[in-house]
Every structure is written in C-alpha cells, then in structure tokens.
Design brief:
single chain, Substrate Binding Domain Of DNAk, Chain A, domain 1, five-stranded antiparallel sheet
C-alpha cells in the first residue's frame, strides 16, 4: 500500500548551491530572509543537526546542476536495479504529513518553495539511489537532451518506521559514502577480468589498449562459463573471437564488479581502431591511431568513412553481453560495440 495520498511524478530541480533535499517545511518557517537562510545552510554543523533531528534529507553529490528526482515508496524495477550506481544508508525524516523536495535554495519562504508531496504523518526511513541513467542506450535524444523516458538522477524511497524498531540512520551531509579503495591499484594492458552476466555465468574480457591516462580499450570475448569456475577458465576465452571492443572507463574494475584474475599478452589478432580527428577545425581532418600518439593528414575518402573517437560506459558492455546471451533486449547501440577489423590502426599506420 502506498504511503502517498496521491501519485507524484518525477520532477526536475535546478540547484546552484550544489545540493537538493527533502525537508519538513514546518521546521523552516523561520527561514524568511537571506540572513536566516545562511544561518541554516551555510555550515555543515547546522545541516547535520537538522539531519539528525529528522527535518532534512540531503540529495548531495557535491555539484550544481539540474536533477530529475523521483520520490516514491515502491521498490526499484529490474531496469532501475541494473542502472543503480550507488545507494545511501537510510536517513530519518519526521513529518506532519506534507514534505517538500527540491533545491537547497528553495527551503523557506524566501523562495517559492520546493515540490510539495503529501504523505501520512509519521517517521520515515529514506533511502536514496543514484542512477547511472546515461549508460542506458537511447537515454539521450538526437539533440543530446535526456529522452522523455530516461531514468531520474535520484530515486528516493520512503518507508514508514515500524513501531518499536530502532534503526541506525546516516547523518552525513554527503548523501553517499566515499568510494572504497580501488579493487586493483593499477590497470595494465593485458589484465584479464570476468564480467558476471547475472544468471550464474560470466563472460571474459581483457584490457587490450589504453588512451590517455584513464580510458581503456576493453575486449569482451565470445565465451561464457559458470561463475564459480570462470576465473579458472579465462585463458580458454582468449582464443575465442572478440565479441565486443570499445573504449571505456575503469569504473567496473575499480569498484570490483569486474574482477581482474590474471594478466597475459594481448593476442596479435586483436587489432585496435583508428579514428578521424579535426585539427583546428573539421576542414583539416587527420587520421589518429587508437592511442592518440600518432596522427597524419586524412584523405577525402578516409574523412568520409572513419568515425570520431567515442567512449562508452562500461555498463553498456555488460548490458550488451546480457543481450547477446538472450537475457535482455538487444539495442541498436550495441551494434556499435562489435569490432571492425578493417578500420584499424595497423591498416592506417605502417
């Protein structure tokens, strides 16, 4: 049964102070001018006191932007679970029945106020999920704006606290804990890792190249093994065809979602791509190797069929593997992850 008196759709909130929030408006009636607002929110000690008292829940990732926020009582869907980046520890929120949500600067009567949400009177446990919505194919439209059905930045779940229970609540101003130390200290070309597919199996990938200081070429091989023996059998996968090849980031390895199990030389059959790059403008097109260290003037034909370099989120490779295994829908964007053995660095640089 929902705790809300009516349905509340997701909404947008723009903050220039670096923080959004949920709050009990009756606790902030005194915030009616700039001095009162600064006294309440210009220092962490005051905010922590309000959090501890259950008057304020921060939606704080340390940056100013426009955020899409969904406040609800229901559980995450399978789609949302897949794209969930991190989840907060529970916060306490006590309300007389009407809460508000929005930008920090909207609290009090100085501004127009946030979005009003009617709930039952009581004490609530509030959990905040930060969504990696941009990793989903089609999340942005042709103009680069979030598509209408893109997931929100924050999903905020409220649940009534059961009488007699004594949960422990988070009181930090930063909503999410700092990330743990990296699962691996350094990512090296040749590292072999396993990619769980979510059904008791795992695929195998390898770091096959590097671009700049923090981008890596990942190859995912056309082989899967039972998860419990995948680490022992990764070398078998390296002789299989490359299923996907993409320039990506280290987030999944850093967090330990993809476990590095060994390191070995990259097979010569794995050939990395070449790209076009405009030097000083699109009329001066060059061919650039995978690493960005070699470049030469492009012919007109090369300018027409070479692609610009792009980076994909590592979760997209994971989603493509699941789709390849029939565990999720196939999206057109996954076709772009398939290797092109024609447009390679070795073909353009001898």
């Amino acid at each position: 049964m929902t705790i809300f008196e009516r349905t509340h759709p997701a909404f947008l909130s723009t903050t220039r102070t670096g923080m959004c929030a949920l709050w009990e408006p009756s606790r902030f009636t005194h915030v009616n001018d700039l001095d009162a607002w600064e006294d309440a929110f210009d220092n962490d000690e005051s905010i922590i006191r309000m959090i501890t008292e259950g008057a304020f829940v921060p939606l704080n990732v340390g940056g100013s932007s426009t955020f899409k926020i969904d406040v609800r009582s229901g559980a995450l869907t399978e789609r949302e679970q897949r794209l969930r980046a991190v989840t907060s520890e529970p916060y306490l929120l006590k309300t007389e029945g009407l809460i508000q949500a929005g930008a920090l600067e909207e609290i009090g009567s100085l501004m127009a106020g946030g979005t009003e949400i009617s709930v039952g009177k009581g004490s609530y446990s509030v959990v905040v999920h930060l969504m990696d919505w941009e990793a989903e194919p089609g999340a942005r439209d042709a103009a680069g704006e979030p598509s209408p059905d893109a997931l929100p930045d924050f999903i905020v779940q409220l649940s009534l606290i059961e009488p007699g229970s004594a949960p422990v609540f988070r009181t930090e101003v930063l909503t999410f804990p700092m990330p743990p130390p990296p699962a691996v200290k350094e990512i090296i070309v040749g590292d072999v890792f396993i990619v769980p597919s979510g059904d008791g199996r795992a695929g195998v990938g390898q770091v096959v190249g590097v671009y700049g200081k923090s981008s890596y070429y990942f190859a995912i091989f056309d082989a899967v093994f039972p998860l419990e023996v995948a680490a022992e059998r990764v070398m078998e996968a390296l002789t299989s065809p490359v299923l996907f090849l993409a320039l990506s980031l280290d987030a999944k390895i850093y967090a330990g979602h993809w476990t590095v199990v060994t390191r070995t030389a990259v097979h010569a059959a794995v050939r990395l791509p070449a790209y076009k790059v405009g030097v000083g403008g699109p009329e001066n097109m060059h061919v650039e190797d995978y690493s960005g260290t070699r470049r030469r003037l492009a012919t007109r034909a090369e300018s027409n069929f070479l692609q610009y370099r792009s980076t994909v989120a590592p979760v997209r490779l994971e989603m493509a593997l699941r789709a390849h295994l029939g565990l999720a829908p196939w999206h057109q964007e996954f076709d772009e992850l398939k290797p092109d053995w024609v447009v390679t660095t070795s073909a353009f640089f001898r």
